[in-house]
């Protein structure tokens, strides 16, 4: 099981309680689709993704980015049981959405970059380590039910 | 593997022009972060007294690394040829596992996001990421 120190719990809760989901979610997903264009394969029905500007202003992508970011809330609320918490979502991403689990890491990296830009120097090495540990656990849990 | 388009090269050169005055600071921050966030990378620096972010050896080495990156920017049209000597150094003397180039690159990108939040747009991000990947590949050329 994953162990979390009081410090780590506090850092994670702090980040998410001060998060503007409608800003960060869209930015993270858009960045992922621009920096790793092959991830666009999952969004063929979302409309115009033809270039970076189209992606950044696509309302479907924005809405989805917010939704995905809120998906992390359940991990924040269940830090001691992330694996079980995401079992159902893992099955969904595998069986229904057919998302290559390697892509979770790509989105996680983009989210890290967007949060870093938002928090500036407050995103110090310790905060970065904690945030990346949190995302790694979520990513692992999401990939768990693939077979 | 990664081929840099003319647009990528222009983007990298323009962005580097903007950030190069702070290259040393960026390197210091990126290296310091890497040692904290990816503790396995500390194994390459057991000869340093102090591995904490902002320490003297970290600052000095961060600057060294970034001057190498700057050099690579000036040789962006032929990284393999341009980084020949550095590749030999990393392959035969330093023997850094090439997986770590990706790790350091990630931390450089995080620092760029922190220090240049409005300039480090997704478009700049993708070109810089491609450039650092191409750099890492050129650096791995002489390994085997």
Automatic annotation (TrEMBL), chain A:
Q: Where is the signal peptide?
A: none
Q: Which GO terms describe its molecular function?
A: haptoglobin binding; heme binding; metal ion binding; organic acid binding; oxygen binding; oxygen carrier activity; peroxidase activity
Please give the biological process terms from Gene Ontology that the record holds: hydrogen peroxide catabolic process
Q: Which residues form a coiled coil?
A: none
Known Pfam families for this protein? Globin (PF00042)
Cross-referenced CDD domains, in alphabetical order?
A: Hb-beta-like (cd08925)
Q: What would be one Gene Ontology cellular-component term for the protein?
A: blood microparticle
Query: Which InterPro entries does this UniProt record tie to the protein?
Result: Globin (IPR000971), Globin-like_sf (IPR009050), Globin/Proto (IPR012292), Hemoglobin_b (IPR002337), Hemoglobin_oxygen_transport (IPR050056)
Q: Which UniProt keywords apply?
A: Heme, Iron, Metal-binding, Oxygen transport, Transport
What range(s) does the Globin domain occupy? 3-147
Return the PANTHER family for the record: HEMOGLOBIN FAMILY MEMBER (PTHR11442), HEMOGLOBIN SUBUNIT EPSILON (PTHR11442:SF7)
Q: Which family does it belong to?
A: Belongs to the globin family.
Give the protein name, as stated in the record.
Answer: Hemoglobin beta embryonic-2
From TrEMBL, chain B:
Matching entries from Gene3D superfamilies are given as: Globins
Q: In its UniProt record, which GO terms are filed under biological process?
A: hydrogen peroxide catabolic process
Q: Name one GO cellular component term.
A: blood microparticle
The record's section on CDD domains has:
Hb-alpha-like (cd08927)
Which SUPFAM superfamilies would you find in this protein's record?
Answer: Globin-like
One example of the protein's molecular function in GO is: heme binding
Q: Where is the Globin domain?
A: 3-144
Keyword Iron annotated: yes
This protein's source sits in the domain of life called Eukaryota
Keyword Phosphoprotein assigned to the entry: answer is no
List the InterPro entries.
Globin (IPR000971), Globin-like_sf (IPR009050), Globin/Proto (IPR012292), Hemoglobin_a-typ (IPR002338), Hemoglobin_oxygen_transport (IPR050056)
- Which keywords does this chain's UniProt record carry? Heme, Iron, Metal-binding, Oxygen transport, Transport
**What family is this?**
Belongs to the globin family.
Q: What does this protein do?
A: Involved in oxygen transport from gills to the various peripheral tissues.
* UniProt xrefs under PANTHER family: EMBRYONIC ALPHA GLOBIN E1-RELATED, HEMOGLOBIN FAMILY MEMBER
UniProt protein name: Hemoglobin embryonic subunit alpha
């Amino acid at each position: 099981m994953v162990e979390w120190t009081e410090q780590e719990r506090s850092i994670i809760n702090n980040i998410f309680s001060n998060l503007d989901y409608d800003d960060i979610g869209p930015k993270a997903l858009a960045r992922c689709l621009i920096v790793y264009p092959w991830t666009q394969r999952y969004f063929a029905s979302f409309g115009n993704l033809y270039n970076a500007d189209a992606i950044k202003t696509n309302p479907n992508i924005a809405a989805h980015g917010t939704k995905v970011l809120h998906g992390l809330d359940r991990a924040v609320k269940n830090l001691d049981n992330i694996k079980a918490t995401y079992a159902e979502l893992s099955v969904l991403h595998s069986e229904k959405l057919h998302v290559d689990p390697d892509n979770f890491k790509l989105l996680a990296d983009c989210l890290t970059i967007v949060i870093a830009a938002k928090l500036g120097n407050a995103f110090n090495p310790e905060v970065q380590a904690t945030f990346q540990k949190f995302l790694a656990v979520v990513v692992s849990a999401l990939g768990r039910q693939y077979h | 593997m990664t081929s840099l388009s003319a647009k990528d090269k222009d983007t990298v050169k323009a962005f580097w022009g903007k950030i190069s005055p702070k290259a040393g600071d960026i390197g210091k921050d990126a290296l310091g972060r890497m040692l904290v966030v990816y503790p396995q990378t500390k194994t390459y620096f057991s000869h340093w007294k102090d591995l904490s972010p902002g320490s003297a050896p970290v600052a000095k080495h961060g600057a060294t690394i970034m001057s190498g990156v700057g050099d690579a920017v000036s040789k962006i049209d032929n990284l393999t040829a341009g980084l020949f000597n550095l590749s030999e150094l990393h392959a035969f003397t330093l023997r850094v596992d090439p997986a770590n180039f990706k790790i350091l690159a990630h931390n450089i990108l995080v620092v760029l996001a922190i220090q240049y939040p409005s300039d480090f747009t997704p478009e700049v991000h993708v070109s810089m990421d491609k450039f650092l990947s191409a750099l890492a590949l050129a650096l791995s050329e002489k390994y085997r």
